[in-house]
Amino acid sequence: MGRYIVRRLAQGLLVVFLVTVVVFVTTRLVGDPVDVLLPFEATTEQRAEFEHQLGLDQSIPAQFWDYLVGVVHLDFGESLVLREDAMGIVLERLPATLLLVAAGMGLAFVVSMVLGVLAALRPGGWFDRLAVVGSLAALSMPEFWVGMLLIYVFAVELDLLPSSGKGGIEHLVLPAVTMAFATIGRMVMIVRSSMLDELAQPYVQTARAKGLSGRRTVGIHAMRNVSVPVLTLFGWELILALAGYTAVVETVFAWPGIGYLAYNAIVDQDLILLQAVVFLVAIFVVVINILIDIVYRAIDPRIQLA
Amino acid sequence: MRRHRFAALSVVLLAALAAAALSAASAANRAPASTQAAAGSITIAIGSEPTSLDPQLKDDGGERAVSRNIYETLMARLANGKLVPGLAAAAPKQIRPKVWRVRLRTGITFTNGEPMNADAVVYSIKRIINKKFNSEQVSFVGTISGARKVDSRTVDITTSAPDPILPSRIYWLTIVPPKASKAQGFAEKPVGTGPYMLTEWRKGDRITLQANPRYWGKPKPRIQSVTYRFIPEGGTRLAGLLAGDFDLITNLLPEDVKRAPKSVSAVGLEHPVVILNARPGNQLTNDVRVRQALNLAVDKNGIAKALFGGFARVDDGQFLSPSWTGYNPALRPYGYDPARAKQLIEAAGANGKTINFVGESGRWLKDKETIEAIASFWRAAGLKVNVQIFDFGEYLNRLFDKENRADAIYLTSSNELLDADRTLSAYYAPSGIGASNSDQDLEKWITQARSESNVAKRNALYRQATRRARDRAYFTFLVNIADLYGTSKRLQWRPRQDSLLFVNTMGLSG
User: Fold this and answer.
1) Domain A101-268, what fold?
2) Do A156 and B236 touch (CB under 8 A)?
């Protein structure tokens, strides 16, 4: 187990490194941050001087080497736009994102487990049909649109919740629900179909024949086997949430997390800040993957962590 | 065991959610935003967070929206754009070709007690032009090369060449306190002479300012406290305005004017325009008949009405606004004459030829829609139009590529100096960063005008240049977009030509 984790971490480092290279090179090839930062009317000389001060006039390999040396010393450089330590800014914003992802994905997990299992217990029943149609609808709606819809209903029409921003827990409700929406749609489908598969297995028949209660059969024996595919999907959803949904949801709700930060960094072509965000998200992705593998093993000892 | 844990976890999460919903509901009942704000505070939603509150560092609309309430400049502007003395006692005088003398007002202090005097002004000028400081505002302060204290209330500003635009330039030169600005963290703790001062900056969330009780100038602030929120999404800004969370939102969409409780607008700084390639090497748009056809084919009024809801005015053969220095009042727009456009295309033998049209999407108001509308007008005139929409970074590469110019490049041009030189130097003069013509007369006139101190002669040169560019159709001239703001019913405010949001010009009714 220990050796396994060490090896996975080593692989993870390689992944983080490769992601860094790709982000570093592509962002520098796509556009010139000086064009975006300076007013259009700035002269060629003014641009050249500005570029020189930022160190962007060096060759890409030279810049990359400087960057790597910096990273080894935990120095990710200064944001081009905010002119402060880039990783410091990202870490300052990270708690807001973690709070949002934890709330959104926690909500998604609980709701989809309950709905998926209930739907599977009476396949073809009214609740099952409702759950399937509802899930399809939920997973088809873009986060952007769901967010706007929720704002108009709960903030503008009903005046129950704030329309945007971060503050008390009431500010968390709409962004978290928005984030959970599509995930619930996908997860309910998987929970339901996995549970249906399991309930058709011979061991369930046996358990029932032995006189075990329905709740015990479903809740313990089938649930454990259902957990493996569900966790696989959930891990994936967690990664999607951190690396993707946050950018949309945080932008719609002006939620001050790293997704909002990444969106701004892309708009402003703040290469240094973007690198810091991607670096941190890549580490999260690696760690989440390792954690999921470990949980697999806890659920099903037959799985070899090789 | 496992089941219990799972059940417990679910119960905790559900309880937390229920608590959230309940507390949210009670919080909403307890303190609706509108009653709180009636005590003399307002909330303004802007599109982006200031990237710094150091007023000399960034070229950033979000920064400007906030810090121009904290900091002041030697020259100020009235709402209609007219330059008037600010911290200066009178307009600067050009005492020698490259030297401008400024007399300062006396008795003004920064909110930390430092005096606003010649030392502070000289310091501020040297600070912003210092190469190491690497200000993004270099192109605004441009020619300024130094400053010298004459006496405690007089400063000489030197320029690298004679510069008649200096009074406009120093409208962008904020005066900062020498001591406080050297301290660590000055960019987060602004100290100015203006009508408002910083209360709190919660990064990513909000900035709150309060009125400066000892503000020297006029109008005195009537609103005690102002909070800025940073909402990138137009839909979210509008929702916040409708829900009563905000009193003022920027960049209201024309189609949302009817939904907003109230809306106000002012002629803005932005001019969408198409730069046409008139260089000799080009096989299509180098023909003046084709370029004129590309103007006659476009229904400018239709674009102003259909895309901008009428909140735009047709540009009269130049992309300068009437309030700017160098605007040519004698020019008339190209009419909308599709039949004549077709004839000209035929006559030039361009029928069925392909025009490459470079643009971007999402950076400027209605950019993609405008590009598509223009393309369809051009198609109707008999051309094939190859619209190329690029990512903004790649788009800028094309716009600034001096060697390979596309036949047509879409641009929304803006001019914060409110002076023709900035626009003309960048897009009209062949050496300009975004110019696509090789008209050496334009180069000559614009260069001459840049250092011509005689106002009448300078304006005459600009009239010549804008007339030439209009008649030779170096551009497809479009419209001047109005700035649109949504406001709450209680906010009393008239927007300005330069798009700045001065809170001391705002008041609350009732």
Assistant:
1) MetI-like fold (1.10.3720)
2) no
